[in-house]
Amino acid sequence: MQQASGWQRVNGWGVVAIAALLVTLPLLLEGVLLLLLPGLVLGLSFHARSLWLDRDDGKLVTALVVFGAVWLADVGWRGEGLMPWSMALWPLWAVAGLVWLRRFCPPFRYWYFGIVAGASGAGVVAVIERLLGAERAGGHINAIPFGNLSLLLAAMSVVLALMTLENGRYRSSRWHLVAAVLATVWALVAMVLSGTRGAWVAVPVMGLVIVLAYRRSLFRLINPWLVAGVLVVCCIVVLVAPVGVMPRLLELAQEVGAYHRTGEADTSYGARVEMWRTAWLLFQSSPWLGWGEGDLIAGRDMLIAGASVSPAIHYYDQLHSDILDTLARRGIVGGLGLAMVYGVPAWLFIRYRRHACPEVKALMVSGILLVIAFLIFGMSQSMLRDSRGLIAYLGFLAILWALLQRRVSLLQKETDR
């Protein structure tokens, strides 16, 4: 096994910190990343001659730069306040982080430790919050991104568990398998206790991706009776009232009926539909460049004043849909940037779908899950307008891609010997 250099170990613990603190101590993570940015830029300048990116790296960097540059240009032209500036800088932070990780990429084990720690921590935080009387677990952030990110950590923990099983060496690393399984359970507990209904929509889709990726070995490695038992337990958990799943489903049914019968928009479902209508109306009135960071709220209030949409959405500063919110703010130009930051990574990761190495396969599946999860989460919540959601997507994207490229490169070197 190749020994990690000093910078690789430092970066490895940085990977652990990002994954472990994402939902457990998100404000600390965000502050640390902002403080590290000047040092990262300085480090890149010192190692400028030894930095090297291949064509695929360039495609991913281009997608991130376009996405960030369009956002920054809009903020500079029509933005207001500090928050839009800080949000728009994260894609460029991701570019710097990706380049740095490609130069000093840590071993795969740091990713494993980070995901297991983050998923387990999410469950512990959620249980503690509910025991302390919280109606919905939120982990010091909004319950919706907390639940969404917990589900993402759960899915990535499942991939790590399946990778360990498929590797053929799981008897010598049974504790890694046990830790990944327990982390999955903890993260799913966090997702359920958050009461985030948007995450529930993503569960079957993400589950299907995992099953398709590991279909050749899944039924050989896992006892079908165990799977049946897990499904029974899940159904029982859904029906237990204190957990909150069934009440939330019944509440959703009532909200849908109230909105479509009477136009009641002062509910979670009704407000979302009104915000989506608002976004579409704003986009239609300024399709190419949108309304901008500074004027979108004014445009929304204009529609409310004209009785085109319900005043129930007056208190929201985003439109609860990444695609529609982006189209309303930055028009088709911004929408193309968003399409690139989703589409380019998905295309790059899926190209490794036939790779035989278990670690490469796990990184590929995790990368696809990342894109799919945020696409689904972004249908009912503007995850990329939440700093933790944006950090999760961009940070995990840079880490997964750097780790995948490092592993492929090491395998190529072994083949060439």
Mind sketching the topology for me?
Layout: H1 6-21, H2 26-46, H3 55-78, H4 82-103, H5 109-131, H6 143-166, H7 174-194, H8 197-213, H9 215-221, H10 224-239, H11 245-262, H12 268-285, H13 292-305, H14 322-350, H15 358-380, H16 387-416
Helix pairs in contact: 1-5, 2-4, 3-4, 3-13, 3-14, 4-16, 5-6, 5-7, 6-7, 6-8, 6-15, 8-15, 12-14, 14-15, 15-16
Report on this model:
The chain is mostly helical and 417 residues long. It has one domain (6-245, 322-416). The chain has helices spanning 6-21, 26-46, 55-78, 82-103, 109-131, 143-166, 174-194, 197-213, 215-221, 224-239, 245-262, 268-285, 292-305, 322-350, 358-380, 387-416. α1 (6-21) runs parallel beside α5, α6 packs antiparallel against α7 (174-194) and α12 crosses α14. The two termini are 15 Å apart. The mean pLDDT is 87.
Strand content: under 5%
Radius of gyration: 22 Å
Percentage of residues in helical conformation: over 70%
Low-confidence stretches: none
Number of domains: 1
Number of strands: 0
Task: Tally the helices.
Answer: 16
Mean pLDDT comes to 87
Intertermini distance: 15 Å
Structural class by secondary-structure content: mainly alpha
What is the element string, with H for helices and E for strands? Answer: HHHHHHHHHHHHHHHH
Shape: globular
Largest sheet: none
Keywords summarizing the entry:
mainly alpha; 417 residues; single chain
Provide a brief overview of the structure.
The chain has 417 residues and is mainly alpha-helical.
